[in-house]
Write a structure and sequence with these properties.
Layout: E1 4-8, E2 11-24, E3 29-31, E4 34-38, E5 41-54, E6 58-60, E7 63-67, E8 70-82, E9 89-90, E10 93-97, E11 100-108, E12 110-113, E13 117-118, E14 121-124, E15 127-134, E16 137-140, E17 149-151, E18 154-157, E19 162-164, E20 167-168, E21 171-174, E22 180-182, E23 185-188, E24 193-194, E25 196-199, E26 207-210, E27 215-218, H1 220-223, E28 238-239, E29 247-248
């Protein structure tokens, strides 16, 4: 469910979707732009002042699921409320798979639900993410303490995914103190993480289950300092002028 149910071999550029509300009880994939995208390209899209309320499937501010899709320069400011038992929810994308690539994008808003939540992406499954960030607030009340994944940036990161030069400057919590809850990710099975950062604002681990190589905690003060972000390109991509965390020069 979305502006499009499915985008197949499509190109979408220079689009703004704002002031909307979606609600569904049986959608398999939900996002403001599309429920699902396959082998598509999406660039320079803004999703703003939105609300999505669903009880099933994968949910993302932009798209519920992307497969073989390239995404760049996307802004997503969407509040997501889900009671889905098994789907994934993310501030930008619910599930990113099939060799999808995401860059120069960010998400914000409230992500509230039961299981499998991420501030930026719910499940990074065979995906590459770089130069991206989230300020989303993530809150889960899991009904499956053993398998639920909740993370400030990603719920789950699979072994064949990579994330670099990205960060979370939001919040994450388990409302009933259960599940795999991490400030950056709930579960990480990838060894391909590099130069990523997380705001150290609570008592959760940076990664609840898995390795935390390539991810560092930063304090509020350190987020103000360019020197804290090793690996970030502050010449062409990022800036820290008049902000308490890095912003994109070409997007923000």
């Amino acid at each position: 469910m979305g502006l499009f149910e499915t985008l197949l071999n499509a190109t979408v550029k220079n689009l703004e979707i704002s002031s909307f509300s979606f609600a569904s009880q049986n959608a398999s994939n939900t996002g403001a732009l599309a429920g699902k995208t396959i082998n598509s390209t999406i660039e320079d899209v803004t999703v703003d002042f939105g609300e999505i309320v669903v009880s099933s499937g994968n949910i993302g501010g932009l798209a519920g699921e992307i497969t073989g899709t390239t995404i760049s320069r996307i802004k997503s400011n969407v509040n997501i409320y889900t009671s889905s038992q098994s789907g994934f929810a993310g501030g930008l994308i619910g599930v990113a798979t099939g060799g999808s690539n995401i860059s120069l994008s960010f998400s914000s808003g409230d992500i509230t639900g039961l299981n499998n939540l991420g501030g930026f992406v719910g499940n990074a499954e065979n995906a590459t993410i770089e130069n991206s960030y989230t300020t989303s607030s993530v809150a889960g009340k899991t009904n499956d303490a053993s398998t639920s994944v909740i993370g400030g940036f990603a719920g789950n990161i699979s072994a064949n995914s990579s994330i670099s030069t990205s960060f979370m400057y939001g919040s994450v919590e388990s409302l009933n103190s259960l599940g795999n809850v991490g400030v950056f990710a709930g579960v990480n099975n990838s060894n391909n993480l590099q130069s990523n950062y997380a705001w150290n604002v609570n008592n959760y681990k940076i990664i609840f289950n898995g390795n935390n190589n390539g991810i560092s905690f930063l304090s509020t003060t350190e987020f103000f300092e360019q020197s804290s972000f090793t690996g970030f390109d502050f010449i062409d991509v990022w800036t820290l002028e008049n902000s308490n965390y890095p912003l994109f020069k070409s997007v923000d």
